[in-house]
Design brief:
Elements: E1 4-5, H1 13-16, E2 24-26, H2 38-58, E3 63-67, H3 80-89, E4 103-104, E5 108-112, H4 134-141
Parallel strand pairs: 1-4, 2-3
Antiparallel strand pairs: 3-5, 4-5
Helix pairs in contact: 2-3
């Protein structure tokens, strides 16, 4: 069964799939710095998605909800939504997700996390993978 497609009130996923705040990744970054390249931000989205899935596997969480919004890509511009969807459909996501348990909704993507009994087969990206927005990390560093 492939990734399910829905157009629903996604906030109900929180109850339906027993999600905690730690199971959600909000990709609405807000204002970026004037010197931060748009493509850097989009590349960071992909890293944040992968790190969130690694963290969920380590913590044995069954789902991660990526809140990416409704914005759609247009020629010359990608969005967090398209970055999330491209990653989830790519072979790079296979170690982390079970596609038949995933839901692609209009404003969110609910990823069913692949469980690994007896240890994780994911690359070591550090014990505390950082899934915060890049601007949030930058503010903390200053």
């Amino acid at each position: 069964m492939p990734i399910q497609r829905r157009n629903s009130d996604w906030v109900h996923y929180r109850v339906e799939f027993s999600l905690t705040r730690e199971d959600e990744v909000d990709l609405h970054f807000g204002q970026r710095g004037p010197h931060q390249d748009y493509w850097e931000v989009m590349a960071e989205v992909r890293v944040m998605v992968e790190n969130a899935l690694i963290k969920a596997q380590r913590n044995r969480r069954p789902y991660v909800l990526f809140i990416h919004g409704w914005s759609t890509s247009r020629p010359g511009r990608t969005t967090a939504r398209s970055e999330v969807r491209q990653f989830m459909h790519s072979p790079a996501a296979t170690p982390y997700i079970e596609r038949n348990g995933c839901i692609q909704d209009e404003a969110v993507f609910l990823a069913k996390v692949r469980r690994h009994e007896g240890g994780l087969s994911t690359p070591d990206r550090g014990a505390a993978a950082d899934v915060r927005a890049p601007a949030e990390i930058d503010r903390e560093a200053t």
